[in-house]
Amino acid sequence: MDQFRDFDFQNGEILLIDKPRGWSSFDVVRKLKRGVNAKIGHAGTLDPLATGLMILATGPFTKKISDFQDMVKEYTGSIFLGATTPSYDRETEPEDITEIGSVSEQDIITSAKSLTGVILQVPPAFSAIKIDGKRSYNLARKGKARELKPRELEIIEFEITKIELPLIYFRVVCSKGTYIRSLANDLGKILGVGAYLYDLCRTRIGDFKLENAWQADQLADHLYQIQHLKPSDENI
Question: Which of 47, 89, 107, 186 is labelled catalytic?
Fold first, then answer.
């Protein structure tokens, strides 16, 4: 991260942002838009409950957004074993509570490995995919969820990093279009006890890494200070 440097948003900048939990991706854009004072867009939406790396582009660099979206992504997080939720994460209440005493660590590792490679994945009903012009999550929240068509994608790595049941900690490297929530749900199905995504952080997009990202509030404050810097202050 370049601390307190000058930006040229009109001619194009790439901004790496660490999205906080509870913010939507559009919240991040709105937070920075006024300070940027230029065309701005983001590559790759993160759910409000997820944290981690977002790429924002300004000015003519917004034309590169599709290139960023095509890049390989890396995520870390945890999966709760022994229940499901309608949203496949903590947005909705757990249901179908199941005993997990019969599940071994080797079962978990083997099942995760079976979900690597080129696979077909069904996106969660609580997703931004459009059905007849309406967002799938809006239909799902009204009790009108429809099953979405499976999509081909690649799970390059699905590493189980720690097991502290009922939580399973993981690292995933995957192609664009992957829903980690669906991956968690699929793991629960294979193990026969259900599962949902508990925590998620995007750590890498291509060669862009979370460790080099700005905190959204920090960058917004920095841009505000630049905009309100008095002429007399510039000569101090």
Answer: 47
